[in-house]
Amino acid sequence: MASTSLLKSSPVDDKSEFVKGQSLRQSSASVIRCHPISAPSLTIRATSSYADEIVKTAVQTIASPGRGILAMAESNVTCGKRLASIGLENTEANRQAYRTLLVTAPGLGQYISGAILLKRPSTNPQLMAKKWLMFLLNKTLFLDLVPLAVSNDESWCQGLDGLTSRTAAYYQQGARFAKWRTVVSIPNGPSALAVKEAAWGLARYAAISQDSGLVPIVEPEILLDSDHGIDKTFEVAEKV
Questions:
Q1: Nearest CA to 178 among 146, 157, 201, 208?
Q2: pLDDT (tens digit, 9 = 90+) per residue, 11-29?
Q3: What is the pLDDT of residue 19?
Q4: Residue 40: burial class (beta carbons within 10 Å; 0-12, 13-18, 19+)
Q5: At what angle do helices 163-173 and 192-211 cross, to 10 degrees?
Q6: Measuring CA to CA, how many Å separate 35 from each of 39, 58, 59, 68, 212?
Q7: How far is CA 19 from the centre of its chain?
Q8: Which of 91, 87, 55 is nearest to 76 (CA)?
Q9: % the chain with pLDDT above 70
């Protein structure tokens, strides 16, 4: 699973607190702004024994006013380019030091409520040992994109098998959030099958995450590939 110990101990009242996360996404460091939400607007599965905790996490942490989620889930190759620009070798130790430097910046929690990291760095013992760090579990939930049979060369996300045990394990590690990304391709559709599979997969992931105590962040990504215009993108976005 998409991507960053958390609320297990105390609510977010220290400005230095923020969320660190796990992800497989190949993106660079950037900030995703979150819009404040109110508890009454949230729909939680009635069967979830974590309902109150999930609402508290979503409202007080993820969507806390004035803060965003730091996306820093760059690949090792991209991270290597950054290290090379300052004369450092692209090693695991240097990548870990770079990410640790970012997530331990003084006062970061004043502006950042979470950070999306790669799976391996986010489980680094040195980072996990810092109790003021919180855990945004991101994108390691979905395993990979694979061809969708009987479609227009479209894809769907694997990862639902075994998701219950994985989310339960991540919760025990301190995670309180999860994000699942699936993609919709415009040049080849999207076919009704692809849209249905995307919606079904995201819904199942969200339900399983809530049952395990994790706030589900749902990301149906409409790919920008091809030469279609903004009107076509809007049409597909409405359909999805």
A1: 208
A2: 333 333 333 333 333 344 5
A3: 36
A4: exposed
A5: 40
A6: 13, 11, 10, 9, 24
A7: 11
A8: 91
A9: 65
What are the tokens at 154?
């479209």
Which class for 70: exposed (0-12), middle (13-18), buried (19 or more C-beta within 10 A)?
A: buried
**3-state class (DSSP) for residue 159:** coil
Tokens read off for 220: 């149906």
Amino acid letter for position 72: M
Cα distances (Å, whole numbers) of residue 42 to 48, 52, 67, 203: 13, 11, 19, 15
Cβ atoms 134, 89 nearer than 8 A = no
**Distance between CA 240 and CA 227 in Å, rounded?**
19
**Both tokens assigned to 159:** 């990862």
Residue written as token pair 């301190």 = 174
Least confident of 70-79, 93-102, 120-129: 120-129
pLDDT confidence band for 43 (50 / 70 / 90): low
